[in-house]
Amino acid sequence: MDLLQSVMDSSTHAIFILNQNGIIDHINEQAKTRFGLFNHSQYSHAAGKLEKDDIVILADTAIGADDGNLRPEDLNVLGIHDKKIHAGDACVAVARYDNPECSPVYKFYPGNELEYLKVETEVDGIPVMATIKDRTILVNIKDSQYIINYFLCVAQLIILDGKTGQVKFWEENGYTARKEGAGDILRGGRYIAKSPDFELNVVGHHFSDYFEGDLFETHLSQIMNGEVDCYENQEYRINGFELVASLLPVYNSGTLQYVIVRFRNIEDIQMIIKERNDAIKIVEKSYKETRRERNAVQDERTFLTLFGIGSSADSSRRQAYKLSQLDCNILITGESGTGKSFLAEAISHVQPRKGVFVKVDCSTIVPTLFESEMFGYVKGSFTGADPHGKAGFFEEANGGTIFLDEIGEIPLEIQTKLLNVIQNKVVTRVGSTKAIPVDVRILAATNRDLKAEVAAGRFRRDLYYRLSTFTVNLPPLRDCPVDTYFIINNLIEKIPIKYGIRKKNLSGEAFAKLTSYDWPGNIRELENILEQAIVLSDSDIIYAENIHLENESQMLTMKSRLAAEEKKIILQALMQNEGNKLKTMQQLGISKTVFYRKLKEYDIH
Ligand SMILES: Nc1ncnc2c1ncn2[C@@H]1O[C@H](COP(=O)(O)OP(=O)(O)OP(=O)(O)O)[C@@H](O)[C@H]1O
Predict the structure, then answer these.
(1) What ligand 1 atom has the least distance to the C-alpha of 334?
(2) pTM across the whole model
(3) Is the CB of 90 within 6 Å of ligand 1?
(4) Among 312, 341, 362, 449, which residue has the most ligand 1 atoms within 8 Å of its CB, making it the best to mutate?
(5) Each residue of 263-272: pLDDT tens digit?
(6) Rounded to the nearest whole angstrom, what is the distance from the C-alpha of residue 26 to the centroid of ligand 1?
(7) For the CA of 474, the nearest atom of ligand 1
(8) Is 337 a residue whose pLDDT tops 70?
(9) Looking at residue 188, what is its pLDDT?
(10) Is 527 in the pocket of ligand 1 (CB under 6 A)?
(11) Residue 510 alpha carbon to ligand 1 centre in Å
(12) 306 in ligand 1 pocket by Cβ < 6 Å?
């Protein structure tokens, strides 16, 4: 055996080496096993085809998928003419081939959500049982058992000789490569002999002669044409198997010589796919169950889907939806990053009130400009003002909604004016005495404990009661881990769109890593981590090692360190300028707005 072959065989990966024309030059033992290129069982059968009166046992988890393109009409040869059976349905049947006088025994299950399907019968005194359960197809014929495990879909076809009752064919891994899918055989195709020493020799043949997969073929031809450098850890469907492969070209003096096709360790992949499918199944199940209970309007469904129907934080979101339909003011509370702004925008989309949505981040407004920014000013009110005067945020939001984010930051004197707006539905511009009527819905949010702020005299009690009549509290992510599933699902759709990249999938392990973390930074932190993982990972699958939770905390530390440095610089500059703020901001080269925001952020008086 040559050295290259020994090296390849010692790998845990399935490897093919293709020449520059796509012809298989080398294949290792793992690849032969993976694709069923040799017979696993100790039994043999001769080559042949279906004959009239043969007994056929068919168990297919999804008609038309990984079964040699079986079509519902192909079942006619088994005496099954059922218009209710469609492509994608699961089906189990025991029947005679090409004998219209014999009635088939069969069951089918619509769609691909099959959990259990079983047929038990007797043909010519031979007991037969075929079951699809727990990702396994099990067929019992007298005392023999035939088992095929699957992850997405598979079909088992067993043929008993119509005269002798002897088993003359059964499916084994590799049936697609051998063109022995159930569809091929029911349509009259021949099957080759199996024996314990049988091996299908694919070396010297084009890869696509035996292995089918559209995306894989596209990528392979891109590599062959030199359009793409390489593909690493991409998800492909080949001969019905979900696989992860890398396509690595080998050049000699600038000319393509070979393409190494390396499939990741099979056990790994099967585990990853199983974990992911299980996790998704659990989520989908709880989603469907809750949906079944409800008979809600489309808007409510869309609204709740954003946050995860059936999640533990569901009650606050349902409450938020109900409140959105009333024209009342709403206070949204919750720790930083729990999605308060996101919820406010969602409310504005589903509420009956139309008009503009004006978002105001109260923490970024310089105290001296608060009044004019909020309520506007008339011409000549103060130096530096727009000579024509200006409408404030409330006037801008007239007829629509204003979202006051970080409402706990509003200075006391402005709180009084805000109360006036709420009670009398009018605003008075700075420099004017004229009251302008405004019709505005107020949504407000804070991560502060406003009750404590009231007790400390920093927030007006009457304003607090006005705002908090309808309060929605968003719990932190750690208190409702189920929400993480839904948010992850939203984010893995949203992030690739934001960055204009392909959608990526999470491995089961990555999913588990994300859901077992307690997310002190809530959804914002989860979003940052997922963004990093999705944008920076090279493959279409996000593995656990792509999720950098520790790095994130280092990044936060870095952020807080930078903030501490910035505060130090501002304090030093203030000292040098003996507290003169104008001189300090000039020395630092920052605008008045930024300077005052920093003073506030770092609590410098
Ligand atoms: N249900 C959700 N699905 C997807 N992304 C979400 C969801 N809720 C929030 N986000 C995202 O999480 C991030 C943080 O949300 P948001 O800014 O609304 O939090 P917040 O509570 O207002 O934070 P802060 O108090 O710090 O202002 C945003 O980027 C937002 O788009």
Answers:
(1) 21
(2) 0.50
(3) no
(4) 341
(5) 876 555 555 5
(6) 52
(7) 21
(8) yes
(9) 94
(10) yes
(11) 22
(12) yes
Q: Which helix (H) or strand (E) holds 14?
A: strand 14-19
What is the number of other CB atoms lying within 10 angstroms of the CB of residue 588?
Answer: 17
Token reading at 130: 């075929």
For ligand 1, whether the C-beta of 342 sits within 6 Å is: yes
Q: Whose CA is nearest to atom 13 of ligand 1?
A: 524
3-state secondary structure of 22: coil
DSSP at 550: H
Residues in Cβ contact with 74 at an 8 Å cutoff, skipping those fewer than 6 apart:
183, 186, 187
pLDDT at 386 over 90: no
Find the 375 Cα to ligand 1 centroid distance in Å.
Answer: 27
Per-residue pLDDT reduced to its tens digit, 257-291: 999 999 876 555 555 555 555 655 554 554 444 44
For 401-439, write each residue's pLDDT tens digit.
999 999 999 999 899 889 889 888 999 999 888 999 999
Q: Using the mean position of ligand 1's atoms as its centre, give its distance from the Cα of residue 547 in Å.
A: 20
Distance CA(331)–CA(468), nearest Å, equals 5
220 alpha carbon to ligand 1 midpoint, in Å? 41
Lowest pLDDT segment from 138-147, 158-167, 309-318, 324-333: 309-318
Helix H or strand E segment including 121: strand 116-123
Tokens of 403: 């979202």
| Residue 252: other Cβ atoms inside 10 A | 8
Residue nearest to atom 28 of ligand 1 (CA): 524
Query: Collapsing DSSP states into helix, strand and coil, what is residue 129?
Result: strand
47 touches 198 (CB < 8 A): no
The alpha carbon of 336 and the centre of ligand 1 are apart by a number of angstroms equal to 8
Cβ of 303 below 6 Å from ligand 1: no
What atom in ligand 1 is closest to the CA of residue 491?
4
The domains of the chain, with CATH numbers, are: 3-34+203-264 (3.30.450.20), 55-186 (no CATH), 314-474 (3.40.50.300), 554-601 (1.10.10)
Minimal-distance CA residue to ligand 1 atom 7 = 339
SS3 content of the chain, % helix, strand, coil (to 5): 40, 25, 35
**Alpha-carbon torsion (432, 435, 438, 444), positive or negative:** positive
Residue 242 DSSP SS3: strand
Going from the Cα of 57 to the center of ligand 1, the distance in angstroms, rounded, reads 54
pLDDT value for 207 = 92
Give tens-digit pLDDT for 4-26: 888 888 877 889 999 999 999 99
Which residues are registered as beta bridge partners of 119? 130
Contact 208, 238 (CB under 8 A): no
Which pLDDT tens digit goes with each residue over 176-201? 778 889 999 999 999 988 887 778 88
Rounded CA-CA distance 157/148 in Å is: 11
Interface predicted TM-score (ipTM): 0.98
Asked if residue 296 has pLDDT above 50, the reply is no
Tokens for 250, please give them. 């080998």
Ligand 1, pocket-test mutation among 302, 524, 532, most atoms within 8 A of CB: 524
User: Measured from the CA of 332, which atom of ligand 1 is nearest?
Assistant: 21
Query: 91: which residues sit within 8 A by CB, 6+ positions away?
Result: 58, 59, 60, 63, 75, 85, 106, 107, 108, 109, 117
